[in-house]
Amino acid sequence: MGSNTVSTLVTAIKSEPSGDDHLYPEASEEFVQTPYIREITERALAYLNAGCPVHFAGPAGTGKTTLAFHIAAQLRRPVMLIHGNHEFSSSDLIGKESGYRKNRLVDNFIHSVLREEEELKSLWVDNRLTTCCRNGDTLIYDEFNRSTAEANNVLLSILEEGILNLPGLRAMGEGYLEVNPNFKAIFTSNPQEYAGTHATQDALIDRMVTIKLDYPDRDTEVRVAVAKSGIAPEEAGCIVDIVADFRRLKNNKRIPTVRASIAIARILALKGEHACRGNAFFHRACLDVLCMYGTEESAAGQVTLSKRLEKLIARICPAEKKSPAA
Ligand SMILES: Nc1ncnc2c1ncn2[C@@H]1O[C@H](COP(=O)(O)OP(=O)(O)OP(=O)(O)O)[C@@H](O)[C@H]1O
Ligand SMILES: [Mg+2]
What we know:
Blueprint: E1 5-7, E2 24-26, H1 35-49, E3 54-57, H2 64-75, E4 79-83, H3 90-94, E5 95-107, E6 115-126, H4 128-135, E7 138-142, H5 149-152, H6 155-161, E8 163-165, E9 176-178, E10 184-189, H7 202-205, E11 209-212, H8 218-229, H9 233-247, H10 258-271, H11 280-290, H12 299-316
Parallel strand pairs: 1-2, 3-10, 3-11, 4-7, 7-10
Antiparallel strand pairs: 5-6, 8-9
Helix pairs in contact: 1-2, 8-9, 8-10, 9-10, 9-12, 10-11
The structure holds adenosine-5'-triphosphate and magnesium ion.
């Protein structure tokens, strides 16, 4: 992998000393392609190629960020990643003046005449959105509804008219930037009721095609758990079925996602334990990973969850094989 290449599964990026602020996503061995993933990918690419920005909306852990990277990788353009932040102002997205450069010209060519000229030029630094629009890169604006509507307003004319308004550069005659035709944008958002999110503006949503994501199908979730842990597919199947059952609990405070399946699978794989009925470590790990997903966190609530889990394991998982020595 070259500098700033990221697997399409990685979302945390460190900036490179080279100063190149772009990402070059690459497919990772852990990335799972199933008919479900392929169908969404094809749909999203069709929309993007038709000039429509794509927006993945859905609850936590439904694969929004992973899909955004995967689709951006198919476009084979440098990628700019922005994470929504409630402290953003539009200048954090487009850039701002970074001071002034002073030029002083002293002309004493004719020694009896001294001409002095001074010029003050304001300096401007592009931020990621402006660089992206200038170069025609692919923008991934992850969890864009964590930024305020005021900060995101700058996107309206970019997405509709292909014009980026740069009021800070007006004095230099560059108040508007024509967006490069290669520019494409992929957004993700979490539901409005999630902590730290803002209501999305209708005008902005109206300029995108929103693909609503739900929890992936069983096959995808099993294959993701296998790819990310190395556990056997049958064991991953048991884990995914347990997690899916907890997902259906009524009045859940929190809903377990594929991350819970991955966590249990990884813990078992690393310990050399198995998703089997009677495997005490497995029972305990499931309870620890899933205990926060109950309707109540009281001791009584935990006992109910634990009983539910025991019944589920008894129904879903095969009995542990006894070693010949035992
Ligand atoms: N196709 C896939 N192949 C392999 N792993 C995947 C795939 N899709 C999702 N995952 C894994 O599932 C987990 C959740 O995915 P992701 O982070 O993309 O979800 P999200 O919807 O962006 O969640 P959040 O709203 O919490 O940010 C991650 O660990 C991710 O690596
Ligand atoms: Mg995400």
